[in-house]
UniProtKB/TrEMBL annotation:
Pfam families according to UniProt: Amidase_2
UniProt xrefs under InterPro entries: Amidase/PGRP_sf, Amidase_domain, PGRP, PGRP_domain_met/bac
UniProt keyword annotations, A-Z: Immunity, Innate immunity, Membrane, Transmembrane, Transmembrane helix
Lineage: Eukaryota, Metazoa, Ecdysozoa, Arthropoda, Hexapoda
Organism: Anopheles culicifacies
UniProt protein name: Peptidoglycan recognition protein family domain-containing protein
Gene Ontology MF, one: N-acetylmuramoyl-L-alanine amidase activity
Domain Peptidoglycan recognition protein family: 105-248
Biological processes, Gene Ontology terms: innate immune response; peptidoglycan catabolic process
Amino acid sequence: MYQAARTVAASSSSRLHSPVAWNRKQDYYDLEAGERTPLLYARDNSREALRYRKKLRPQDDPNRVHPVALGLMLALLIFLLIGVVIGVYLLLLTIQRPWPVSHPFFLVERPAWWPYPTALEATSLNRQAITDVIVVHSDTECCFNQEQCVRFLQNTEQSWWSGGRQEHIPYNFLIGGDGVTYEARGWKSQHGFKDLPGQNTTLVVGMIGNFTDRQPTAVQYAELKAFLTESIRRFSLSPQYRLHGAINSTRSGNDGAALYSQLQRWPHWMGFVQQQQQQL
């Protein structure tokens, strides 16, 4: 009996450690005999593995961005934006200003003084090539408030349109004695003075009034400076522009002398251009 008990114990121990056991009654190897009892052990192992995977999951997730990497990317993006801002600021500093401008720029656009359906018809100006500014005087009475200046622009527009020429006001801009710039043809269209050079590279600015024997008002000069600086700021005028006056050979030799005596002291002054026949 003792020997039989040892045989049964050995057989049971063999079943525990081997997944394959010999079935003496059936005369074959029992493949399932060794798997019944060890299932408890395997289940315990699976629980341990599950807890281990849970611990590793936050670090081993391939789709998760590491906090340190995310912080580095954000810092790199911030430095990039700061670099762009500094670059733009330095670029703006390289744009030459003709002088410090304390007088603000005032602009009255064309629709504000010409509220009629007739659209401006003029050849487009090559904005990238604007290198010259011609300043002339209108050789008329000056205007000292917006009502007077608007009336002057309307009369000039009607005169040029109904005088047989069927053309719009020829100036690009006009500056009144009220210190305001009035848009005529603007920055995008060629001026209408066919006897003045450089129609595709020039802005013509008219100072409203007769300035042969007397100077324009101080606010007109200040507004002209503000206009030039604003044109550069809008990239509508080259920072290396050339400033000119116009001499009308059909008038007296000192036409606009008081105006030009001041402009000749300004930066970028390059002298006079000749103009004939057409009235400014």
